[in-house]
Amino acid sequence: MKLKLLLTVLTGLICYGVVQAQPSYLAPVFSQRVEPSAGVRRKAYEERINEVLVWSAHRTSADKLGNPDLASIAARLALGQDAQYCSKQLIDLMSKQNPGQKGTGPFWMFPVVEIAFLGRDLLSAEAKQSIRNAWHTNIQLRGDTENHWAMYHASLYLMSELYPNDPAESWYNGKSSQENLAESREYLLSWMDLTTSIGQGEFNVPNYIAEYAIPMAMLASWAKDPLIKKRGQMMLDWLYADLAQNTLLGIIHGPAARSDDMVVIEPSLAMASNFSWLMFGNAPPTKGYGGWLGMYACMAINYDVPEVIYKIAVDRKGDFLQEDLKRTRRRWRNSDVLTAPVYKTNYTRLDYAVGSYQGGLVDPIQTHGWDVTWAVPNPKGIHNTMFSMNPISSTDDLETCFTVLPDEMPQRVMLEGKPSYDFPGKLLGGSRFEQVYQNLDTIIALYNIPEGTRFPHINGFFSKDLSHFVVDSSGWIFAQGGNAYLAYKPLAGYTLEPISLEKSWLPGLPINLGDKRLYSPHLKNGTIIQVGSAKEFKDFDAFKQRIRELPLRVTLEPVPTVEMTTLRGNQIKCVFGKPPYLNAKPVDYSRWKLFEGPYLNAEKNSHVLTITYGNLKRVLDFNTVTITDN
Question: What's the CA angle centered on 576, arms 570 and 577, to 5 degrees?
Fold first, then answer.
């Protein structure tokens, strides 16, 4: 054990010199390749883990209070370095935590849990006692989102196992270790059961993958209960299989329950890129590895990516359609259902991907409803996406999903990390006045916006990186992104204008990024997008001519309606407020499975996921808590 620890430290110090010279996020070019050898894959994976740990351990940073960096302490302990320094800094940090101090809660809890377990044999007795004291004096707020609750309960569960017999008066919430253990276990099991039966609420999240992977990795690494430990590992498989099938050259794409203002226009900036890089080695990481990646890396050595998931992520053979079931955020008011189903579609080709959900209110603040993403060899700085949306700002929507008082909304949302919510030019957010239907690489998005709606217009996003941009007399807008040919049809009048980001919206960013916003102020509105691969056509002019020839009928009164034949020969009819029709038959969402496609398959309410690639198969059965490989 000591020899292994010594080798880890030496490797870390060696890698530190490499990292200092050229960390992976500074590499000018990133190349993808499929590695057939499991041993070589594992070695490369451990090298990436080490790179992140060494970078996290030796970076010099402090939070706004001037406290030591918890991520740095955790990384040093994971490397087996500087135990005396970590003990001293931790004691100092824990002494500055006061009862009820702002900032306590899940994002304080999980780093401290990691440090407590990583430092069991390294920290001084005084340092370990300072951690235990903090869990007595600091009030921990559970938060109000799915990721908050996962982190909160996983953290409390593990601390209760670490101190199994402590009385109620020694905990911040006045409950004994056994009571905290039982409550946290009950929530974790209920969340896993819900996710594996009707889908995750915060689905396909570009930045929140860390907030799910970290608590599941903590359980898989340190839970004493073998069933909870196994479930943690199985949920990691579940998360990474879902990530693998939602990426294009390692970059996440498609609809998301929660994204952010920059990721929607530059997808490679997502935290998911860091996880694709770390787990699969198939994408460049973001600058600084995105913060929480270091906290995950502290436990990453305990997990091995199954070959079947690795192959899904890196070894695509051709086009595939994946249809999945998810759910909306919990609704506390203005709704007859607690959560509503989300029907998520992704069509992925080698040159591009098209993804969507059916529209409506999923999450009022950070939803991204649909997009086209095209493949690029080096995605850094590239805005390789196209979409449209209704930038609604609604107190009613916020009150549906949050429990604070109406007069605190939306200002409170904007002060808590969602600065664009009440901004008419924003490109992030879903709308109950949007209805979307996707058939392979065709999107029809209809908008029927009532009078009096705040921001009753459509914003369409046109990237600075498009080529052959043409506003055609036919009403179509043509462009090329990478090897993808794009045809965008606005259904009502519009203007095209440069996107200018107000300083109050996204501080620190350049005012003009070079992109364009399509602005359409009409209440009855819509967007049609048809995509094709450059290799399907003689040239760009041939694509344009083919699109002009597609049968198309559009009416906006009394509600937006589109009837068209797609590039793939399918007949679609979409009427706002009614089910879409495909080849003269209504689309039946009731048949939707939890997962259905060539890679991931699961029946609704089954708690069983089958992951398949070629002759590889892994079955995650949460009913029996077993993993079966064939």
Answer: 115
